[in-house]
## 1
Amino acid sequence: MGASNLEPDLEAGQQTSILKQSSHPVCLIFHFLFRTAAICIYFFGTWVTSNFVLIFVLCVLMLVFDFWTVKNISGRLLVGLRWWSENKEDGTTTWLFESRDPTRPLNAVDSRLFWTGLYVAPAVWIFFGIICILTFKLQWLLIVAVALALNFANVIGYTQCDKDAKQKWATGFASNMLGGSAASGVVGGLMSRGISRLASSIY
């Protein structure tokens, strides 16, 4: 009896894994997969080979895969945001943003891990860049430069996209409130007129 009573309590006390809490576990894995692979190849690549060109190519491939995945898939699924840019005929670039319906709630785990991965990766590459400068391994700065360019493109894109989404939601909320107030005023006016007419007919 005692053991059977304890089993539900133990099961209830077990913490659910992050992947089980996620609404898009596969997407969450790929959000970290390519950027982690690039960092590991950069850091541990010399343990396997002394060929810098091979390490450079593998790192750049992982970084490109990561950039595309974060920009087009994980951002849309994990936080409901998407950004892209278009080049106009006059040579200027226009940033375009998409955002989710604010009435659709986000998964807190997905959102937290998305933004954590987005901001931590550039910080790691900045650290690697400082180490390269201090140790005079300037050729490795080529990999760091590519990594920072691609990572910061997503950081800037999603930061601006998030600000744009919040502005749209705030504007929409204000419009709804004003619309509701106007509708209330119209309804109130009609009711007042109706009551006045009724009173005049009685008296």
## 2
Amino acid sequence: MLKPLSDILEKGLKIIFVGYNPSLRSSETGHHFANPSNRFWNILYRAGLTPRKYSPEEDAGLLQLGYGITNIVSGPTRAAAEITTQEYQKGAVELRRKLAYYKPHVVCYVGKGVYEKYSGRRNVPWGKQKEPVVPGITDFVVPSSSGLVRMKLDDVVAIYSGLKELLRGRP
């Protein structure tokens, strides 16, 4: 039986990472970004956001760094393409509620599609967005960390590195 993952959230985090939804592997293991082909943990390390490469089993340890994880859709699927419009609409309402409650400094959308489904905006650039969806919270868009993404890893890491620059000077 496929099960949703628990969010890793606390109030006032530096960054909340928002994915599409859990993979089948994440549902099986109970940990975020657990598919072996997903590059999330490697990207965070290479971008200087973690002091070492974490494993999916250490996902809750991100809280100690001021980071959290959630998804726009809670139900697991084999691929994001399987998510229905209704699931995205319901998920966007729930995500807006979570962000207003937890009030992170930055919300990092792991995939342009996540942000576009959430915000209703199209053709968004990578990085910091001009207008936040939730006032007072910075929206930041990065490429999906899925192994299916065709961008060079170094280019993906460079975009994620912008998060570190954005956080400079924040407590």
## 3
Amino acid sequence: MLELTKIISAFIVFPGFFVTFFAILAFYFFLKKKKPLKPLRGAWLPILFLSLSVFFYMASSTWFVNLFSKVLYIPDTKDKGDYIVVLGGGIDEYSGSVEVGKHTLRRLYKGYLLYKSKPRKIVVTGGVVSKGIPEAFVMKDVLISFGVPEEDVIVEDKARNTFQNAQYTHSIIGDRPITLVTSVTHMKRSLLSFRKFFKEVYHIQSDVPLDFRNAFLDYIPTYRAFYTFCNIVYELVGILQYAIFKS
């Protein structure tokens, strides 16, 4: 009964609502096609709405997004960097309070585990995109709360994008071997930038894109899968942008 309830609700709330809505429209115009209609409406509207229904289903289903995410996956290397470099993934500001974002927290935890295994300096990099405080300061506080000594944390607080993360980190530590830590979906784009400034870039991924267990929940629409789909598209656009503008 619980499974049935989840399946039904998944097609009523966002984004599953659009799967249902466009499927109903496709069925409606398919039935109307038998009546005298303009050729365009009769032939193309059912196909258009059915395509939109299929698109929203695929883009919000964990099984498909899991497959889609593989285009960005890169196997980890060994951790041989003289420095650990953790890229910021956002902080959350709400009603005057500031918290580390979930993507940033996962990256920091992975950096902390690498530090525990082999202590060395950790560079946290991330500035202010629009307004507020630089995320690097929040990241530093989190690492200190984990137990990393303050003197082992280097703050880079000016970068506003991935290219600047690499550029400004290089201006602080020079061309030294680094172990780069960022999200699975963000790593490919990050390496394009960091390899422009650093000769030796090792990389360890964190913050997996989604939870896929091949259960029934992975085959119904969820907002988490749709969110991840949007992130993947964003990263692909970023890679295309780098290929064109080299920054």
## 4
Amino acid sequence: MSKEIVIGTRESRLALWQANWVKDCLQKLAPAYSFRIKGIKTLGDKNLDTALAKIGDKGLFTKELELALLRGKIDLAVHSMKDMPTILPEGLVIGAVCRRENPGDVLISRKGNKLEDLPPGAIIGTSSLRRRAQLCHYRNDFKIINLRGNVDTRLGKLESEMMDAVVLSFAGVHRLGLGDRITQLIPLEVCLPAVGQGSIGVEIRAGDEEMQNLTGKIDHHESRLAVTAERALLRKLEGGCQIPVGALGTVDNGRLLLEGVVASLDGSKLVRSSWSGSAEDAASIGVQLAEKLAQMGAGELLRSMRQENCHNV
């Protein structure tokens, strides 16, 4: 009888798609095992009426899955990499960073307008401080409103709440077969993505060699290096509250280029730069870019935002 591996996941349609994708890949590569998916509700799923920044961002969509993993109730936890805190609980490691989908954001507008064509004072829905800050820097007339919920819920609110547009990740929209709804791929020059966006992560218990060997079969080395650099940058910059940071690492011929941005919440101030080096020095590249951004003014920006944000949470 084959050994059963229990895969933990959030219960949204997108999360289940990702977990099933991991399950199918592993089943093909390791047919000696059988796999079962176990849905688990996280704090972020239970509280959909409050802005993410006000709930606190550490492990909102991962903590309950990680507890189940530590307690042996599941063998693997599947996450969106962008939801994973930069510091994992003791006893857990990332077993796989899967091949990355297009990491960018997309605009879905009610009347088919691109960003540059939206009317003055256009109402755009997003729960992301990163998107809010960069979009307001691009056009300071935009009115950004908080929009929570799964992809289907957000698209429904686009119509029911008469917003002009919503901003979502390309990966999520594409994976759910909703690519025909996309109005525009938002240029990376306008909006850098969230750290890890577009990649699926598989978390396992540290020291579990069997699961390490299993998940290693779907680890994509270049995606891992790019995401490692992004996470190192965020870890160096962050301080306990949600902050508007965007980053994108790209690997080409053994070289890694990391771009990063920090902006004020209203978009009036924005610091953006890049750093490159050997891809195998991914973590170091992230730290060096974070230090460069801090010297360019991001440090002061983040200090003032933390004081304001943390007091309001």
